[in-house]
């Protein structure tokens, strides 16, 4: 065995409490190097009386490693354990002391979870596991009240520019809630709503005022209440990394310089505040002089922003926050933010904008979830023909092993957003590929999110083209695509197995872009078959039972002599399911 590839530590994603009665253990070994991993478990104070030897399951793999996983239920909330690795006639034991060829004498030197405290369990909002999000940029969604339009607005169908307005507002959202309910949406993520000079509102002037071009606090309350009556949750965008240059405290610093009482609210390298060779003399978002960066370690700034977070949760009964540029704000701030928000609403859903591995923020003391851009990148690379099934399975395995299970169940999965080209555009305007990627989105673990308009065929390159106004003329909408989204959303909402069930690839081979994978829980078993090629394909896989049905039509689908053979059109898919008899 290549023992240098073995890895386990008794913390983080490798050993954690899933709930007050359950501990998940994971280990890493070299890819295809170990035949079996067993775990010896027991209580350190009664090892002989509680000892169990349990077989771990190979849960995932990537290019280099296999990942083994098991669920353990300690009798007395304490867990002492070690691993037994078997490859052919070679056996190795691993405990906290290291690797050895002879059986160690437990429980001395065992790995250990000293006590499973319920308060330390990483808890995520249960509702988020069932949520299907819809991202709305209010300025570009619908103009419901022309009386609050900016002075100069573009025609609704006009090509977007970097700084033009269309007049979209909260009344427009309120007017179209029937549309969202018909689609099946049960959660909305709004990009910023607060007073700002820009159409996108990521440069905020007043954090406690709804932008007058969108409406007011009373209207926002009405929108949230109307959503709640329909079973739709609402989260807002918190822009706490930076503000607008028009933000009054920053204006005071511009005016009074070093004499301003607000000078420590920002990171100022040098006075006067100005831009030299494209670089401001103060910290900003990127190098945008109009977006000065907050010093969130300053007690006054922290108090101000945490008060904003608390205010909106309580004022409009908000269901959570999406956190802009979350990785550029200090962890102390986010720990205090979580306490404030969860105190106001224990079921609030906190989603950080972090574009890479985010485990640091997902330990139960900061965020519940992050925007899963690595997911969208890999999914779209695969469905664009950029990798085979083997490489794709490796990529997904790596992502699944990044985080604990309860985090994976609410990870914020999207295929595009206001910061990327549109989904249809990213897939070369091929609706068949779009459908394949959406099927994967809705049958994969995590919380799916749709960017407004994707469901009716909006296209667009990067900003500003991806932020074009929603198309409300039904003759210009792709209604067949809308019905497809509606069907997939309905399927996901109907079955727990598609939200919390085990995910595993059944067929993902080198030089073959086709896939078969499964989602399964104690009641329902799904298999998803995908032909990611421009030719007709027949996919085959052994099936032990003959009680399978098409999940979208209900028709029986039977194997032949224990082998299921599924014919698929170019870029076609099929979803099968069976009920598990308990």
Quote the distance from N terminus to C terminus. 40 Å
How are the strands of the largest sheet arranged?
Answer: 20-19-18-15-12-11-22-21
Which structural class is indicated by helix and strand composition? alpha+beta
The main β sheet shows up as: 8 strands, parallel
Q: Note the overall shape.
A: globular
CATH superfamily of the largest domain: Glycosidases
Domain unit count: 4
Q: Uncertain runs with pLDDT below 50, 5 residues or more? A: none
CATH architecture of the largest domain: Alpha-Beta Barrel
Give the tally of β-strands: 29
Counted by DSSP, the helix tally is 16
Mean pLDDT: 97
Instruction: Bin the helical content.
Output: 10-25%
CATH uppermost class of the largest domain: Alpha Beta
Percentage beta strand: 15-25%
CATH topology of the largest domain: TIM Barrel
Domain Glycosyl hydrolase family 13 catalytic: 135-492
Keywords: Glycosidase, Hydrolase
InterPro entries: GH, GH13_cat_dom, Glyco_hydro_13_lg-like_dom, Glyco_hydro_b, Ig-like_fold, Ig_E-set, Malt_amylase-like_C, O16G_dom_2
Pfam families: Alpha-amylase (PF00128), Alpha-amylase_N (PF02903), Malt_amylase_C (PF16657)
What is the compact description of this entry?
With 582 residues, this protein is of the alpha+beta class. Helices cover 25% and strands 24% of the residues. GO terms for molecular function: hydrolase activity, hydrolyzing O-glycosyl compounds.
């Amino acid at each position: 065995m290549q023992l240098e590839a073995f890895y386990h530590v008794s913390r983080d994603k490798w050993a954690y409490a899933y709930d007050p009665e359950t501990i998940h253990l994971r280990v890493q070994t070299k890819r295809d190097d170990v035949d079996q991993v067993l775990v010896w478990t027991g209580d350190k104070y009664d090892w002989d009386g509680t000892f169990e030897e349990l077989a771990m399951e190979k849960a995932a793999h990537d290019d280099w490693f296999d990942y083994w996983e098991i669920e353990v239920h300690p009798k007395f909330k304490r867990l002492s354990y070690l691993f037994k690795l078997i490859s052919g006639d070679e056996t190795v034991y691993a405990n906290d002391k290291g690797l050895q060829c002879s059986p160690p004498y437990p429980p001395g030197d065992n790995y250990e979870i000293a006590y499973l405290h319920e308060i330390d369990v990483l808890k995520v909002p249960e509702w988020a596991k069932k949520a299907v999000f819809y991202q709305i940029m209010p300025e570009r969604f619908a103009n419901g009240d022309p009386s609050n339009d900016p002075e100069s607005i573009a025609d609704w169908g006009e090509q977007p520019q970097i700084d033009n307005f269309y007049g979209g507002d909260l009344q427009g959202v309120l007017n179209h809630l029937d549309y969202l309910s018909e689609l099946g949406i049960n959660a909305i993520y709004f990009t910023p709503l607060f007073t700002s000079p820009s159409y996108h509102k990521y440069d905020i002037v007043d954090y406690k005022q709804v932008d007058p071009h969108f409406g007011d606090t009373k209207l926002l309350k009405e929108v949230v209440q109307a959503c709640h009556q329909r079973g739709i949750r609402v989260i807002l965008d918190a822009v706490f990394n930076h503000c607008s240059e028009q933000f009054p405290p920053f204006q005071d610093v511009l005016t009074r310089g070093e004499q301003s009482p607000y000078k420590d609210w920002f990171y100022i390298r040098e006075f006067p505040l100005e831009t030299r060779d494209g670089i401001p003399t103060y910290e900003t978002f990127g190098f945008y002089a109009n977006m000065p960066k907050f010093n969130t370690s300053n007690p006054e700034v922290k108090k101000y922003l945490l008060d904003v977070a608390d205010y909106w949760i309580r004022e409009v009964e908000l269901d959570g926050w999406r956190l802009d540029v979350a990785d550029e704000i200090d962890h102390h701030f986010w720990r205090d933010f979580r306490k404030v928000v969860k105190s106001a609403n224990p079921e609030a859903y906190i989603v950080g904008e972090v574009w890479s591995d985010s485990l640091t923020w997902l330990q139960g003391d900061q965020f519940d979830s992050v925007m899963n851009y690595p997911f969208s990148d890999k999914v779209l690379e695969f469905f664009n023909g950029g990798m085979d099934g083997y490489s794709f399975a490796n990529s997904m395995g790596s992502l699944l092993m990044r985080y604990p299970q309860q985090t994976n169940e609410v990870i914020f999965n999207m295929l595009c957003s206001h910061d990327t080209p549109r989904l249809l555009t990213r897939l070369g305007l091929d609706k068949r590929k779009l459908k394949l990627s959406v099927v994967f989105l809705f049958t994969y673990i995590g919380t799916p999110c749709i960017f407004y308009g994707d469901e009716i065929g909006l296209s667009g390159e990067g900003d500003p083209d991806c932020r074009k106004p929603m198309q409300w003329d039904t003759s210009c909408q792709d209604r067949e695509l809308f019905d497809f989204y509606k069907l997939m959303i309905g399927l996901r909402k109907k079955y727990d197995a598609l939200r919390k069930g085990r995910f595993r690839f059944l067929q993902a081979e080198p030089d073959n872009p086709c896939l078969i994978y499964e989602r399964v829980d104690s009641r329902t078993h799904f298999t998803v078959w995908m032909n990611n090629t421009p030719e007709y394909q027949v996919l085959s896989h052994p099936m032990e039972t003959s009680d399978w049905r098409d999940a979208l039509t209900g028709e029986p689908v039977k194997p032949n002599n224990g082998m299921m053979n599924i014919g698929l059109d170019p870029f076609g898919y099929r979803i099968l399911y069976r009920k598990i008899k308990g």
